[in-house]
Amino acid sequence: MSARYCRNIGVSATASGIGGASIEQRSCYKPGVESEPFAQELTDQDRVLLVFAYLGPLALLSLIAARREFVKWHAKQGALLSLSIAAAWIAARGVYLLAHGDAPGLVWAVVAVLFWFATGLTALGLVLLLLFCIVRALEGERFKIPLLGDLVDAL
């Protein structure tokens, strides 16, 4: 038996696995990622719509114009992600404005700095998540964002 390296999970696997299935016949486990086989390659229009799917309000355009279920799925996930980001921002901004009125000068200064620091880190994380989702979509994979991906499947 010869061993092969499975790059998706980072371990060696034997060429003859359970039931004699070869590595080429079995897929390696990738948590949170579902690869959808395509009958055809992605068209340029599909690629543009997949990018739009994760660019805020443009997700609605992507959802309306999409012809393939794969593109629609990413548009739904992108729209839900945009809505959840907007809802979280509105809630955080409300808390920030309420705290501004009640806190004394020095305490308020510390709270304001911490709030903007947390906002910056969160924004950086969200930009990285959006870029990751766009790259995975262009590779032809469904990356399910925890909670949102399952909600998209239910829609």
Short note summarizing the structure:
This protein has five helices and four strands, in the order βββααααβα.
Characterization of this structure:
- This protein is mostly helical and 155 residues long.
- The chain has 2 domains: 1-30, no CATH class; 36-154.
- The protein has 5 helices and 4 strands, in the order E-E-E-H-H-H-H-E-H.
- The chain has helices at 44-52, 58-65, 69-102, 105-138, 148-154; strands spanning 3-6, 11-14, 33-35, 141-143.
- It has a two-stranded antiparallel sheet. It has a two-stranded antiparallel sheet with strand order 3-4.
- A hairpin with a 4-residue loop joins strand 1 and strand 2 (11-14).
- Helix 2 packs antiparallel against helix 3, helix 3 (69-102) runs antiparallel to helix 4 (105-138) and helix 3 (69-102) packs across helix 5 (148-154).
- It is elongated, with a radius of gyration of 21 Å.
- The chain starts with a strand and ends with a helix.
- Mean pLDDT is 76; it is low at 1-31.
